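WARN  no MSA supplied for this record, continuing single-sequence
INFO  ligand: pyridoxal-5'-phosphate
INFO  echoing inputs
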Amino acid sequence: MSARPNSLAARDGAFHFHGYTNALKNEQDGGFVVMRGDGPFIYTEDGKEYFDGLSGLWCSALGFGPQPRLIEAAKRQMETLPFYHTFTQKVAAPAVELAEKLVGLAPVPMSKAYFCNSGSEANDTAIKMIWYFNNALGRPQKKKIISRVKAYHGVTIAAGSLTGLPAIHADFDLPIPGILRTDCPHHYRFGEMGESAADFATRCAENLEKLILAEGPETIAAMFAEPVQGAGGVIIPPETYWAKITPILKKHDILLVADEVICGFGRTGNWWGTQTFGLQPDIITTAKQLSAAQAPIAGILINQRVYEGLRDHSNRLGSFAHGLTYSGHPLSAAIALETLKIYEDLKIVDRARELAPVFQREMRKFADHSLVGEVRHVGLVGAIELVKDKASHESFDPKLTVGPTLVRLAHEHGLIVRPVVDSICFCPPLISTEAQIGDMFARFSRALDDTTAWLKREGHC
Ligand code: PLP
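INFO  complex generated
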């Protein structure tokens, strides 16, 4: 399939090199050009409608249609002060207000907010803060960072190193030294035969402590964790997991960074995944739904202890010599502030909590399907994992590309979802209606039927 000559799709193929894309295929086929949006739907150049079941990249909480209040907030800011920066004690008004708002919304006591432009930058910056903090405390050897198998924390050099997905490292010469890897808390995939979820959580915690002791607690600065591992395949930890992990981190004075880039702002049925799963973070990174993805902005929340370390060291050195031209950009901050007001006015968290049972009931309808191994969900995020053998949980040979094939077939039925190998991820906009959630899964059901027929034809099931 190749794009019509001179279409935007063809011009994209000719001129644009994009991320997470097979460049040669894009050059040959042209890009998938999205022209406009309406609620959870997007529309392409040729007018075809798609339900975006992943909220773009787990971020478009308010969907893809124009938001009059955000337009007004952006216009107001552009008319007043389109840019100012945050270096040398300067700041534009919306960044002040947003910092105050975010600290007020924090799920555990937090002291200060710092702004970046993306989740990756936020996690990179958090690593630098942690290194600086330990230098400030006179323990320069306490620098290693723990992350988990299947974690996703971004793609920049340090955040990409935290990411625990081999494809993100391959031939980029990542990870950097000093990143330690601990278990992915996915009971269905990594639990042993007959092991309960609680016992599996105990084993994850014991392995974490073994790792810490083997490396030397005096060398380990922090652990990064997503409350739900999103891009790893929507992995939801066992109920007792955090109650077992937290004391180990505290015992060895290891900071916890909750990466709330996907979970923050209602996704799991609370404002924060930290609340849903009982984390006790010292630092929180957030982005995506912070502005409903309508402006690039990310935030880092730090607690008083971390802040004091950074503050005192910045005073000793003369400055916290880290900053981004667009940190706290007034346009992004104004849009994020208004987004948070919209969330409050729409009672978006209550709404997500009310819609969650509908989303989950629709998902569970697939649980008995012969190809479905696990249906997992929390709030309005979930995944359906396809397997070759339901009893043993045996996966299909990845070379068969079962998940990606289903996603391609779903595309033909006007549904965009994400495969993580054979786990199909769902993360619809928080403003979706019950009927739209039903529509999303009806489209998925047709794709699953097509996938089953294809696998049968090929003799794989
Ligand atoms: N952290 C998590 C949990 C994410 O899911 C992502 C992106 O999907 C990131 C960090 C990186 O964010 P960005 O793509 O804005 O750099």
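The mean pLDDT is 98.
INFO  checksum written, moving to next record
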